[in-house]
Design a protein that fits this description.
This protein has 9 helices and 15 strands. The protein is α/β, with parallel strands linked by helices and 329 residues long. Strands 3, 4, 5, 6, 7, 14 and 15 form a 7-stranded mixed β-sheet that branches. Helix 2 packs across helix 3. Helix 4 links the parallel strand 9 and strand 10.
Length: 329
């Protein structure tokens, strides 16, 4: 019998998450039955979506939702032999018994010199989100100007790099001077610290005096209002996230963009990367190809120790990470 450690959501979040909202538990797992496998987590992901989705997809007492890269340590399923690596949706668990229906094998040609943790980041869900937002939603074209906020995060940093590969001018905002420096290293044309500029509107205008063709939205709140007002006519907006509102106890109110959208004939579309799941294998190969060619760079913020899952999650929501936030077991 294997003893698994799990992190339980003891209480739905009220405002910003607290350590007391989580509880570390242990449980004994049964031996895998025919068709099942036993997984051991290697890397776990902490992502912004967990904050709002926990409210609608979980009840108190459930294991926290999330994805992980895991190794098959016992198998009674020929599709997943012992030693294989998979991406699974087992949540915050050290060990999982699975029938394989929720598992995606890590690509067989995964390079030995690339950490498997990137299957949760640049060559995983965040990278796919960036790619589909650019190609499927925004339909970004060479020569256009793109704005992305939370640009030093797991998604935003990939968005900017793919946009540069497509021949675009890229403006990014981030929450520290160190993150701004990181964006410049990645090749962003303009980058600014939204926390220290005297005027967000003026910073956006200075970075792109002629306005923005496309806006990859990760933040919401007042930033969204400021950005929408500076879109070009027929501009396109891909709404990926709204982290500025996730921890609100009362709904924010602000300017309403409808007239601006009408007059400028803007297009705004929310999306989830799972809409294009059929494309995932090809898209993963494209992302890995860019990475190996040195055209796509990745940075991770790694927290060691399964016991630190809540701290890593809360740190990510506070913006402590540059690049993808990962927990290494």
């Amino acid at each position: 019998m294997v003893r698994a450690k799990t992190w339980i959501l003891t209480k739905h979040f009220d405002g910003f998450p607290k350590q007391s909202d989580f509880q570390l538990k242990e449980e004994e797992l049964p031996e895998p039955k025919d068709g099942q496998v036993l997984l051991e987590a290697l890397f776990l992901s902490v992502d912004p979506y967990m904050r709002p989705f926990s409210r609608v997809r979980m009840k108190e007492g459930d294991v926290m939702i999330g994805t992980q890269v895991a190794k098959v340590v016992q198998s009674k399923n020929t599709a997943f032999p012992v030693g294989a690596h998979v991406v699974g949706r087992g949540g915050w668990r050290t060990h999982t018994v699975s029938d394989g229906s929720d598992l995606v094998p890590v690509m067989t040609e995964w390079p030995r010199d690339v950490s498997l943790s990137l299957a949760l980041g640049t060559v995983g869900m965040p990278g796919l989100t960036a790619l589909y937002g650019i190609e499927e939603v925004l339909e970004l074209k060479s020569g256009e100007t793109l704005l992305v906020n939370a640009a030093a995060g797991a998604v935003g940093s990939v968005v900017g790099q793919i946009a540069k590969l497509k021949g675009c001018r890229v403006v990014g905002s981030a929450g520290s001077d160190a993150k701004v420096a990181f964006l410049k290293e990645l090749g962003f044309d303009e980058a600014f610290n939204y926390k220290t500029v005297a005027s967000l509107e003026e910073a956006l205008r200075k970075a792109a005096p002629d306005g923005y063709d496309c806006f990859f939205e990760n933040v919401g709140g007042p930033f969204s209002s400021a950005a929408i007002s500076q879109m070009k006519e027929f501009g396109r907006i891909a709404v990926c996230g709204s982290i500025a509102t996730y921890n609100d106890t009362e709904a924010q109110t602000g300017s309403y963009p409808q007239m601006t959208m009408i007059v400028k004939q803007l297009k705004m579309e929310g999306f989830l990367q799972s809409r294009w799941e059929r494309k995932h294998p090809e898209s993963i190969r494209r992302l890995m190809g860019w990475l190996k060619e040195g055209k796509l760079h990745s940075r991770e913020h790694v927290t060691k120790g399964f016991e630190n899952m809540p701290a890593a999650f809360m740190g990510m929501l506070r913006g402590e990470n540059t690049g993808k936030a990962i927990v290494a077991v």
